[in-house]
Structure formats: C-alpha cells, structure tokens
Design a protein that fits this description.
three-stranded antiparallel β-sheet, 11 strands, globular
Length: 535
C-alpha cells in the first residue's frame, strides 16, 4: 500500500457533494494536470510578471476548457499523492533504525575538531543545545546534492542549515536579505559562531545562496532531516512509555493575490481556480473573529505524539497540501511516511474529518492501527443501543446489557455477548435469545473502539492537545506569518520550524513557569520533564 497510496474515500457525502460527483470528472486530477503542464512549459514560472503569469495560465485554462467541452480531455496517469499535489514516497528515506546506525557510525569513525573560541561565544541555552546536537559531517551527508562537487562547495549544507535554524528561531520576521546583512556584522559573534562563520572576517553566504539551499532540499532530504532529530528526541526521555498519536491540520495563508489568474468551469457549475502560487488553492478555515473564513494557501497536516501521563503533544511529521483538500485523503500519504520511517503507530486519535469506516477497518486489518474519532451525530444508530452510553442490548425489549468481547477480524464486526445465566429461566427471553450479537464498524458509536468501552472518552479529549503544538509552530517557531510561496519552500519552512520547536523542548525552553509568586509552584504545561541526560 505504501508506494501507490490506495485511497479509500469516505461513504458519507452530503447532497451537495453527491451532485458534484454526478459528472464523473476527477477534479483533483484535472487541476493537477494543468499545474504539471504549466510547470513543465514554464520552469521559471515564479519569476514571471503577474501579467505574463495571467496570460500563460489563461491559455492553459482555455485549452483545458475546450478539451473538456469537446470530450477530448485526456488526463495523465497520476498517483494518489500527485492528485493532491504531493510527492510520492521517495526511495532514499532512512528509517529510525538506519539513522541510529548512521549517527553511531559518524560518532565512532569521524574525527571532530572543536574550536574553543567559537564555543565560548555561544551563550544562549537554545543555541548551545543546537550546537551540541548538530553533527555537521552527518548533516552534510544527508543534505548534500549530487551536484555539490569540491569546486562548488563555498558553503557547506550544514552551515546553511545552521543559518536557517538561527533565522527561524530568532529572526523569523527578517527577510533573507536583511538576515544575511545582520549576520555579516562582525559584532554578532554569537550568531556567527553558531553558524560556523569566521569571527575575524565578514565572509557570509549571500541571501540568494540561502534561498537556493531551501529550494534544493528534496522531499527525501527534508524527511531525513526530521528523522535525524526524531532519533535524538525519542531517546532523550521527553516522552514516556504511554503514548498515543494524533492527527490534525491547521491553515496557513500565503502572500499571493486572492484573485485567481485563470479558471476552468466544469459541467456541474463548479470552477477550478489557478493562483499565482500554482500549488496552493482557496480553502475554508474555522470561524475566527479576526480572520476571513476563506483564505488562499495550504493546510498543514501533522502527526503528533501525545504523552498520556503529562498531557503534552509534540509534532513529528507534517505534509502541506493545498487548502481545498479534505483531511481524509491526505492522511494516507502521511501515515505511509510515518510507517516508512519506522514509527510504531498503535492508537491514532483524530477529529471527525478523518472518520471513514472503510479506512478505519483497513488500517486496523493491515497495520493494526486503531483510528479513533468522535462519534458522528449523523451516523446511523443500530437498534437496541443506548444512544447516551453506547450500551448494547440483544433486542429492543431486552433490559440486560451485553458485554463487549472484541473485534472479529474475519467477520469485520464488533462482538457482544450476554453473560446472564439462562439455565434458571430468570430471563424471559432465555428460550429464544441468541446471547451474541455482532455490530459492524461505523463512524458512530461503534468505531475501532466502541463508545461503551471504558476509557474511550479520554482518548477523544487527547485530540484537542494537538492545538497547542500548532499554535507554537505558527506563532512562536516562525511559521506564521508566512512570507513564502510554492509548496517545496513552505514544506522546508515547516521542517525548520518543527526542528526549532523540538530543540526548544530538548533545551527545556518550551515552556517556562511565570515569575509571579502565585504561579511559581505551578508545573509548566508544555515542558514537564527534567533535563537530566539531555545536554
């Protein structure tokens, strides 16, 4: 299932969605085909003026419109990930086990020459922890492209990565030009020492070099970078033994004109809109008082790990997809990526947007993953079931609750049994009672873990803990406001922001108690474990 991302759409569709699908057109594939054609014909599309962008986009949309009306529209073969504007799972992704071997090998066989003068200049706790963990020889191996020959390596990838992390951690509002000018000053000894720059000469990478480095990071490089830090994070003691994983998404608006450059009108009256950033689209965000409901940009779909004991969630992997995509299809490539790097997923909590009985049943059968979502109010309710507690009875006239035995993988249903002793005829239905009942898995009270099982309610509450990492990622770790366009650049910034956030956790700076006397004894909510053995 991992290479092709076989999608299983949800069966619950509103009347509006059902009407849209009567045309039989694959709208995501049509839009992805137009974007692919534009990127192939105009590799430097982002450098064109808005007037030129509008011209070429309208030409492509008009051609697609004519082929659509004439019935000659031929769509290329697209994988599930490509339909969503994502990349297929690359071959060069390392697992956590392979990364552990790489780290140990470089630690054992590569000599490191520490510079005491440079180290003494770094005083900030966050920068010191980052400097301790950043293994430059290993990072150069992970991030070096094939074209990085000795004659072209004026700046090593590890140095440029350090500059990106410094920019994200301290100067997220600075442009690349302003940031490079700031670091070029010899007075910024701490910043230059952290980035591995000379403390006596003002040699500094050009801002174009830093931009090119961000664009050069492939999907495999970004994933391997996250796997490298996850290797250190999962071994740091910040996560206990009792954990669950959670899925959620958040909106990210990009700085493009909200007026589309071109449109393609489909037979059902809906339109496919193309913006200056070809990868993004228009979507809806949750109602907020200070923001419009509609926005142009991406949705960041993130897999988090939640410590049950402390109630703290940490982001692990993220995929940015166009804002108009539903949560459920993007879950498939995200989980495929998590399984490919070796994460152990057992219980996965998510909101109603990820509820789909076929998907939940398949994840349980193929990977042993319990995808737990809150019961949908519109889901069909079986007979003889208490709608408040989820208690199951044999039939509508029975008053004896049945005990949950488990899920039958062969029949694909939950099995309930009545434990009442019928030998003494104390039950009026003893003669005709089957004593067992099977209920199929659904998106209501009988998901992967039925509502009648003790402890399922706290699992639903753990899903809400994902909102805290999103707020930190966007407002503290430099992801918002977003100054970038194009999905690869946005995806790279998401990785940098997650790296900085996890570094702050390792440094014990993720949350600090307030200094006033009344709250001095209150335990921090986001950083609750000691630093022993971390630095």
């Amino acid at each position: 299932m991992l290479p092709g991302y076989t999608f299983c759409e949800s069966k619950r569709k509103t009347k509006k969605h059902a009407m849209k699908n009567k045309t039989g057109l694959d709208k995501k594939a049509i839009r992805a085909a137009i974007v692919r054609q534009l990127k192939s014909s105009y590799p430097n599309f982002s450098r064109l003026s808005r007037k030129e962008k509008k011209r070429v986009v309208r030409e492509a949309c008009s051609a697609a419109q004519r082929e659509l009306e004439g019935g000659t529209l031929a769509l290329p073969a697209l994988s599930g990930a490509e339909r969503l504007g994502l990349e297929d799972l690359p071959a060069g992704v390392l697992t956590l086990e392979q990364m552990a071997k790489q780290v140990e090998s470089f630690k054992t066989h590569v000599l490191r020459f520490r510079q005491p003068d440079r180290r003494r200049q770094i005083a900030a706790p966050l920068l010191r922890v980052m400097d301790d963990l950043l293994d430059d020889p290993l990072l150069n191996t992970l991030l070096a492209p094939a074209s990085l020959t000795p004659s072209k390596r004026a700046w090593m990838p590890a140095q440029l990565l350090r500059m990106e992390l410094l920019h994200t951690a301290r100067f997220p509002s600075f442009s690349y030009r302003a940031f490079c000018a700031y670091v070029a000053s010899l007075k910024r000894k701490e910043e230059r020492a952290f980035c591995g720059l000379s403390l006596r000469q003002d040699a500094t990478p050009h801002h174009a070099t830093l931009s090119a480095f961000r664009r050069s990071l492939t999907f495999a490089m970004r994933v391997n970078l996250m796997v490298w830090l996850l290797h250190h994070f999962l071994r740091s003691g910040r996560i206990g033994d009792r954990v669950v994983h959670a899925l959620d998404s958040t909106d990210l608006a990009v700085p493009v004109n909200s007026y589309p450059l071109g449109e393609v009108e489909l037979p059902d009256g809906t339109k496919l809109r193309m913006f200056a950033d070809l990868d993004c689209d228009c979507g809806r965000r949750r109602a907020k008082r200070d923001r419009a409901v509609r926005f142009v940009g991406y949705r960041i779909h993130t897999l988090c790990v939640v410590d049950v004991e402390t109630g703290v969630a940490f982001p692990l992997l993220s995929l940015p997809a166009a804002a108009n995509h539903h949560d459920l299809p993007v879950m498939e490539p995200l989980l495929a990526l998590a399984l490919a790097i070796g994460l152990e997923l057992k219980v996965l909590v998510a909101d109603e947007g990820y509820a789909s009985a076929p998907v939940q049943e398949r994840l349980r059968r193929e990977h042993g993953i319990l995808l737990v979502t809150p019961p949908e109010k519109k889901a069909l309710r079986p007979e003889a079931v208490n709608l408040g507690t989820g208690t199951v009875f044999c039939h509508s006239a029975c008053e004896t609750p049945m005990r949950y035995l488990g899920f039958d993988d062969e029949d694909g249903e939950h099995v309930f049994r009545c434990d009442l002793d019928h030998a003494d005829l104390s039950c009026p239905f003893a003669a005709s009672c089957p004593r067992e009942r099977g209920l199929p898995l659904d998106t209501g009270l009988f998901g992967p873990i039925p509502a009648c099982v003790p402890g399922v309610e706290p699992l639903h509450d753990l899903r809400k803990l994902c909102e805290r990492p999103f707020n930190l990622l966007k407002h503290v770790d430099g992801l918002e406001p977003c100054h970038l366009v194009r999905q690869p650049s946005v995806a790279a910034q998401v990785v940098f922001s997650q790296l900085v956030g996890l570094f702050k956790v390792l440094a014990g700076l993720r949350s600090v108690p307030r200094a006033d006397a009344q709250s001095a004894t209150v335990q921090p909510q986001q950083e609750v474990l000691p630093l022993a053995g971390v630095v």
